[in-house]
Amino acid sequence: MSNNRCYIQGSAAISAQPTFEGDFFSLPMIVTEANNLVAVEPDYKAFIPPNSLRRMSRLLKMGLTAALKAVQNSGQPSPDVIITGTGKGSLSDTEKFIRDIVEYQERALNPTPFIQSTYNSVNGLIALQQKSTGYNNTFVHRGFSFENALLDSMLQLAEGEVKRTLTGCFEEMTAEHFYIKSRIGFWKEADTGNAQLFDRNTPGSISGEGSTFFMLGDERTENTEACIKGMKMLYKPSAEALERGLKDFLDKHDVGIGDIDLVISGRNGDANTDHYYRILFSANCPATPEVPFKQLCGEHDTAGAFAVWLAAQILKQQQLPVSLQAFVANPPKAFRRILIYNHFIGEQHTFFLLEHV
Amino acid sequence: MAERVFITGMGLITAIGDNVMENLRSLRLQQAGIGYTRHIDTIHKEVLPVAEVRHSTEQLAVMAGVPVLGYTRTTLLGLIAMKEALQSAGLTEADMPGTGLVNASTVGGMCDTEKVYYDIIDPNKHGEFLDYIDTLDCADCTQRIADTVGIGAHIATISTACSSSANALMYGARLIKHGMLDTAICGGTEALTRFTINGFNSLKNIDKAHCKPFDQHRNGLNLGEGAAYLVLESESQVKRRGAVVLAELSGYCNANEAFHPTAPSPEGDGAYAAMKNALAMSGRSVDEVQYINVHGTATLNNDASEGKALLRLFGDKVPMFSSTKPFTGHTLAAAGAIEAIFSVLAIREQVVFPNLNFSEKMEEAGVTPETRLLEQYPVTNVISNSFGFGGNNASLVISKYE
Fold first, then answer.
1. pLDDT of residue B135 exceeding 50
2. B291 has pLDDT over 50
3. Which of A102, B165, B228, B278 could in theory staple to B188 by disulfide, Cβ–Cβ 3.0 to 4.6 A?
């Protein structure tokens, strides 16, 4: 299936950087002192009518808006298929309903947070808005949520019955959930912020959130940004399996290390898990320029999608954004192929390969 | 894309039995699993009936052969069903690294985290509850199950509300058809929670009596819990292994209604599209369907909408159909896989299961479910329906192996 064409015909990303509106490529990185990167939320009124907006919780607004903008940016009609991934869904709704149950002693509860806490509620809204009655699926598997959504989309395109899939992800962080995860060492103890993310060599990372959507199609269109050549997921691989996985992946796509112009890595500054990147890259592609991305978007279950978005923009613009230029002393003359390697808490590891079109 | 996908193993646990054999016996004896909760702390415990697996979480851990600490009820139910499925397919430890798992869940480990949530968010509290801190999401149960039995080739969790495990079966079948996997174990697991009981109750969707699918006086669903997994294998893998085929997954379709966040369309557009396309994929005609295991939750909207879809697709020749939810309750993410197993049993045992608690046809759609247990009934093709929130509709066609 991976030899079939999968073009990014349009995309949109809401993140902690000015990626949704504004000139992300020429602006410096938005810097935070704290260990949580908060998404820059757009003005939703341009996308969602006010009466709907009032009822919708934050993640639903973020997800729906990114989805609609990706469709808009593609210049294509409604998608045939909608497939998403989210690790945690609408945490604020889940937390609210848990609290409401206790606070109101299980009586006269408002069902809205329950409905919106359902992981596929964003998909339902997108389908409703786009009048898309085709295949619709939601994956909820930590660092394989977006990845399975992308795989499913590529299978759909390969099956030949659909022309376009709207594929994306959404994640939010709440104060309460940030605290919960801090109890099991997810975040750095000292306030580190994103500018110093890689300087401390301490355990933990910084949190992030956001929503990224792609209109994927089997044809190259005028607005097409890049081509997704392939993806490979490895679940809890050993060091050998990871190394073999990379070789198999590149072989399968008939690409050598020398053909890769840039590596985008999921390094997140966590002293416990960053060795995966160090070992793999130093053994396999020590000379290839590498840029990390989690200082931009923070660590979250579906951060991999942000890396795919970033790769597509670099391939389209044929340059690195200002915020990443310091990582590469000698940038390549042209960006033809980008390899992404990302893992989530050392469990779900993924390679993506994107190509210039 | 030519590979056919076969069902070569299955395992389940529900309120009507700890394994396939016990479930089949309860279905034949027409013994429902609906009662009152013994394990959930809720003000509704003596008001809203549920279909609860009778064992305590500690007992489930013993049955699953793992320590209880850190394992949620969701995971334990899943592990018990998984182990039966593996045994039934004759799969061993050596087969596991090449096997994939597509699991389904609607609220992950909520059953255990909701009990300790206020401790988890209280910096002054410490204790064993911290072992449950990262079990709330849907991937926790999937990974615990995969890690316990050693599944390694592919892993995914799907959450599309009440159609989740039907979609898990579909995704697994497609991974096989694309040659990405030879063996995929697909299904779902769902434990009762105060969260979902209150959620459905706030939607005024729960009946205070035993649910009455397709009845004029139906008044909502009863929630249930359970887990079910089916082993799917490619035709070539079946030949290589010499595996015994239980049935073929011959067709499937996932369609969205794009109508309303929680309610189905009155004319059953999504249900109609899902059944029609799944049947078309299976290459079977409407006359070749002998039994439909309907979604039949007994909510006012679902049954009216599904009933109309049946009439639209089959006209005046609607096949035998029944909802088995009066037995197992509505097990949400596990329902699609549990009912897929019941569909395999209908073919293997040549039996149609009764729709309990039905007495009067609905005004909105004049269809009558089968209320008797029909033995020695020739069943070769079954449609199994699972419809959910967000307009997610899924239908599977399960066929006799020929």
1. yes
2. yes
3. B165
Alpha-helix residue ranges (DSSP H) falling in B215-268: 235-241
C-alpha B228/C-alpha B211 separation (Å) is: 22
Whether this model's pTM surpasses 0.80: yes
Q: Taking CB atoms and an 8 Å limit, are A141 and B1 in contact across chains?
A: no
Token reading at B359: 């007495």
Q: What angle do CA B195, B196, B197 make, to 5 degrees?
A: 95
Contact of B1 with chain A, judged by CB distance below 8 Å, is answered with: yes
Q: What are phi and psi of B384, to 5 degrees?
A: -120, 125
Cα gap A25→B309, rounded to integer Å: 52
Residues 233-252 of B with CB under 8 A from A: none
Domain boundaries in chain B? 5-241, 252-399
**Is the Cβ pair A121, B261 closer than 8 Å?**
yes
A135 touches B: beta carbon within 8 Å: yes
Say if the Cβ atoms of A133 and B269 lie within 8 Å: yes
* B111, B138, B162, B253: the active-site residue: B162
User: Which B-chain residues 272-291 have CB contacts (< 8 A) with chain A?
Assistant: 273
Q: What is the pLDDT of residues B177-202, one digit of tens each?
A: 999 999 999 999 999 999 999 999 99
- Using the predicted structure, report yes or no on whether residue A1 has a pLDDT greater than 50: no
B55 is catalytic: no
Q: B5-241, superfamily in CATH?
A: Thiolase/Chalcone synthase (3.40.47.10)
Enumerate residues 6+ apart whose C-beta is below 8 A from A124. Answer: A136, B256, B261, B389, B390, B391, B392
> Contact A137/B167, CB-based, under 8 Å?
yes
H-assigned helices in A226-274: 239-252
Confidence of residue B137 (pLDDT cuts 50, 70, 90): very high
Query: Does the interface predicted TM-score (ipTM) exceed 0.90?
Result: yes
Q: What is the pLDDT of residues A311-341, one digit of tens each?
A: 999 999 999 999 999 999 999 999 999 999 9
pLDDT digits (tens, 9 = 90+) for A272-315: 999 999 999 999 999 999 999 999 999 999 999 999 999 999 99
Sign of CA dihedral B282, B285, B288, B292: positive
Token representation of residue B220: 């909502």
Strand partners, A164: A217
The alpha carbon of residue A111 is apart from the nearest alpha carbon of chain B, in Å, by 5
Q: How many C-beta atoms lie closer than 10 Å to residue B191's C-beta? A: 33
Same CATH topology for B5-241 and B252-399: the answer is: yes
What domains sit in chain A, N to C, each tagged with a CATH number? 7-217 (3.40.47.10), 227-355 (3.40.47.10)
